[in-house]
Write a structure and sequence with these properties.
276 residues, alpha/beta, Rossmann fold, 8 strands
């Protein structure tokens, strides 16, 4: 891991500022957990197998591979600001022998895509990291074809519950929220997704919530996915490293507590670009 005391993150999700190996494992676990359900949901959208789809904030391409399976005769665009992660995404497609993926280094509000060129834009756990989410939604409307679909998936820390709640857990959440907020992030974005889409002029806007609980994966895996990123971004001025370590240890002890429970929610906001 890089020495966080030496430099500040460039933005709300800066892999250079994280334990890259652990973070890649966490991201992969997120996708693997719901791969089947996500694939089924995408199929309900009626995306043609020759469609052009966009994975916005694609990272190492774990979700891009799901999209690649969905459109074998189509085109997958992946966009991210991290060149190292984009290389991983390209390599993943190459290992499969796929040639229908293109991965570009770009900010989410300045995409190198033509107007009305995309049938489906999908963004998974990106909006919590955006300083200007409205600009990104506007950009998505620009690149979507009339009638094209947009799906935004994210979370909201108000839905994060652990029981029994260990001492210091709220302080850890407050510190991680503050750390992300000062580099442009928003840990309470889930509730706001509908509003972003409506104000950008999308139609047929809807939001559903999907539970993610310790019952589904076990408490240890739940905590790694739900809290693993948070603990990495907290700086000493917000909460001492020793205090963070103590809270993480108390959370870890819940893995051996048969009565313990954890829950958070995923918000799935979907809409269409206007037909004309």
């Amino acid at each position: 891991m890089s020495d966080r005391a030496d430099h500040a993150p460039r933005h709300s999700y800066d892999m250079d500022h994280l334990d890259a190996a652990a973070e890649l494992e966490r991201l992969k676990a997120q996708v693997d957990l719901v791969r089947g359900r996500e694939r089924d949901y995408l199929r309900t959208l009626g995306v043609a197998d020759d469609a052009t789809v966009l994975d916005l904030g694609c990272g190492p391409g774990f979700l891009s591979e799901v999209l690649g399976e969905l459109v074998p005769r189509g085109k997958v665009w992946g966009a991210d600001v991290d060149p190292a992660l984009l290389t991983r995404a390209r390599d993943a497609f190459a290992r499969r022998g796929w040639t229908h993926g293109t991965f570009v280094e770009a900010w989410a509000d300045r995409l190198p895509l033509e107007d009305r060129s995309v049938d489906l834009a999908y963004s998974r756990f990106l909006f919590q990291h955006l300083a200007k989410p409205e600009a990104v939604v506007t950009e998505l409307r620009r690149v979507l074809r009339p009638g094209g679909r947009v799906v935004l998936v994210d979370t909201d820390d108000a839905s994060l519950v652990v029981h029994p709640e260990p001492e210091g857990f709220r302080a850890l959440l407050d510190a991680s929220n503050a750390a992300q907020r000062r580099v442009g992030g928003d840990r309470f974005v889930g509730r706001k997704l509908r509003g972003y889409l409506v104000r950008a002029g999308f139609v047929d806007v809807g939001v559903r919530v999907e539970p993610f609980t310790s019952e589904m994966v076990g408490m240890a895996a739940f905590l790694d996915i739900a809290v693993g990123y948070k603990r990495q971004i907290i700086t000493e001025d917000l909460l001492a490293a020793s205090a963070v370590a103590e809270v993480i240890a108390r959370l870890g002890a819940l893995a051996s507590d048969a009565g313990a429970f954890g829950q958070t929610l995923g918000y799935v906001a979907s809409a269409r670009a206007p037909a004309a």
